Automatic annotation (TrEMBL), chain A:
It comes from the Bacteria. This is Methionine ABC transporter ATP-binding protein. SUPFAM superfamilies: ACT-like, P-loop containing nucleoside triphosphate hydrolases. Belongs to the ABC transporter superfamily. Residues 2-241 form the ABC transporter domain.
Length: 337, 222
């Protein structure tokens, strides 16, 4: 659905040139929710704004539904944009227009008649659950409600793609959750392709199928969300994942332990299996769970446990080998292996 | 008592002058809206980074506006006398004065329009572009409504300036309150007329300002 080839965006001013996006290529399939994560200044906004040509790429291709947008201008580009919805961190609603008028504006842009627009606006208000707010002005709405209006406006012309530029970054956690659920719903119901950028791994974990990690204008790692979570390759990616899966034990606590401290990661189905209980039946070791957590990355569990094993050295070794074979992910944090 | 008597005597003159002032200011205000508003929008949308960016148009329009605005009104008034004569067939009276007042008001209001549009969040304009709106739609449905409070303020300031200018037009026989002040107050040393005209002007300006503020507040949905 979206194909980005060797995209470069350079901001030139008299004094210097700033590289916003540095040779990025991406492929987003139809119906996919694609997350782009990175710290501030990584080039995420520059990249997503190139996808509807709000920012003109310096070089490279941006193909949406087979059409290279960089070859379009004027009315052609305008028509293409009707099929690309976008929502923003700060909503960007027209403050002098009511909720209804804000949404109707998008339909007017598509040349719809008043009657057609009216019907569609009412549908959209229902979709985003704001029917009772239709005559209010944006200033009278909460952040979450404003973003719902933004979503309704973006979806007005049945776009194929929805671009979200930090759409939940200005919202509190519970509102964030409800907006993410709405996006997830829309994605399922309408089969809409969604590209979202964020600096919060929580958002990615919640709704994305695929993820790209950006740093200094480049995509440094890309893949299925679950794969990235369970097997991150780049330090920056690990940083982001640690932001939600982090639980380092205090140094003193680890030092005091006599046994071997291991960190085990269970992926998918295995997490639900009783690898641990099996372990104690097979080998002469005692286990002491120091910490444990199971995260659900969109319904697929990812478990992490930190455990102290005590017993004969040879038994401990066998136990460790057993777990390694079962989970392929074991790290000895402290003590002899 | 004498004061009151002379005031009563002056009433018809003051009344006439007052309406002449309203007439001049009204006409030039109308011209300012009809021509200055589009000019102001043009100045804004052709600016760098905006959706109709055009440095040539912006440069030419900006320079003309600056040129007219840098000429003191009283000089503009005199310089435009031939044009005034051409358009109205005379160089005295309120209709004649309206010509130079209008020419002064157009660039004045245009800058006000431009400034009030600068205050619009760029993101809002961008969201309209992203939604696929035409330039005309963005101007009509985003820029003008969003700038409305600022436009009303700008119109208020333009009106008040015009009241001031129209008094100056009195010097060359433009009619209105200024004319009255010059003819009676200045040439005939009539303090009653002088003070009365000043009071009338102060009241007029106050009323305009209050009305402008309250309308501006009413249209502000931010
Ligand atoms: N309009 C612009 N003009 C100049 N530099 C810009 C502009 N927009 C972004 N940049 C620069 O490009 C880089 C990437 O910015 P951005 O895409 O906003 O990152 P992010 O959204 O990941 O925080 C930054 O160094 C930023 O300063
Ligand atoms: Mg950004």
């Amino acid at each position: 659905m979206i194909e980005v080839n060797n995209l470069v965006k350079v901001y030139s001013s008299k004094k210097k040139e700033i590289v916003g996006v540095n040779n990025v290529s991406l492929n987003v399939k139809e119906g996919e929710i694609y997350g782009i994560i990175g710290y501030s200044g990584a080039g995420k906004s520059s990249l997503i704004r190139c996808l509807n040509l709000l920012e003109k790429p310096t070089s490279g291709q941006v193909k949406i539904d087979g059409v290279d947008l960089t070859t379009l201008k004027g009315d052609g580009l305008r028509k293409a944009r009707l099929k690309i919805g976008m929502i923003f961190q700060h909503f960007h609603l027209v403050s002098s227009k009511t909720v209804y008028e804000n949404i109707a504006f998008a339909l007017k842009a598509a040349g719809k008649t008043k009657a057609e627009a009216n019907k569609r606006v009412l549908e959209l208000l229902d979709l985003v659950d704001l029917t009772d707010k239709k005559d209010q002005y944006p200033a009278q709405l909460s952040g979450g409600q404003k973003q719902r209006v933004g979503i309704a406006r973006a979806l007005a012309n049945n776009p194929k793609v929805l671009l979200c530029d930090e759409a939940t970054s200005a919202l509190d956690p519970s509102t964030t959750k409800s907006i993410l659920n709405l996006l997830k719903d829309i994605n399922k119901k309408l089969g809409l392709t969604i590209v979202l950028i964020t600096h919060e791994m929580e958002v990615v974990k919640e709704i994305c199928h695929k993820i790209a990690v950006m740093q200094n204008g480049e995509v440094i790692e890309e893949g299925e969300v679950y794969e990235i979570f369970s097997n991150p390759k780049k330090p920056l990616t690990r940083d982001f994942i640690n932001s939600i899966l982090q639980f380092d034990l205090p140094e003193q606590l680890i030092e005091k332990r006599k046994g071997t401290i291991i960190k085990i990661q269970f992926k998918g189905e295995i997490a639900e299996e009783s690898v641990v209980s099996e372990l104690f039946q097979r080998y002469q070791v005692k286990g002491n769970i120091l910490h444990g957590k199971i995260e659900y990355i969109q319904d697929t569990p990812l478990g992490i446990f930190i455990m102290e094993l005590t017993g004969e050295a040879s038994e401990v070794k066998k136990a460790i080998d057993y777990i390694t074979s079962k989970t392929r992910s074991l790290e000895v944090v402290h003590g002899a292996a | 008592m004498v004061l009151l008597e002379s005031l009563v005597q002056l009433m018809p003159d003051i009344n006439k002058a007052f309406f002449e002032t309203l007439y001049m200011v009204g006409i030039s205000l109308l011209v300012a809206i009809v021509l200055g508003l589009p000019l102001g929008v043009l100045l804004f949308v052709t600016d760098k980074g905006l959706f109709l960016e055009n440095s040539v148009v912006k440069g030419v329009a900006g320079r003309i506006v600056n040129l007219i605005r840098s000429i003191p009104y009283i000089i503009l008034l005199v310089a435009l006398l031939p044009l005034t004569n051409l358009l109205t067939g005379t160089t005295i009276g309120p209709t004649a004065a309206s010509v130079s007042l209008s020419v002064a008001a157009i660039p004045f209001f245009a800058r006000m329009v431009e400034t009030s549009m600068r205050e619009i969040d760029k993101g809002v304009i961008e969201s309209a572009i992203a939604v696929g709106a035409t330039s005309w739609m963005i101007i009509k449905d985003v820029l003008l409504p969003e700038a409305k409070p600022g436009l009303v303020q700008g119109l208020t300031i333009t009106t008040i300036s015009l009241v001031g200018y129209s008094a100056m037009a009195g010097i060359v026989g433009g009619g209105g309150i200024g004319d009255l002040a010059i003819r009676f107050g200045y040439y005939r040393y009539d303090n009653t007329v002088m003070i009365t005209t000043v009071v009338v002007l102060i009241l007029l300006v106050q009323v305009i300002q209050l009305a402008g503020d309250s309308i501006s507040k009413k249209v502000d949905k931010r």
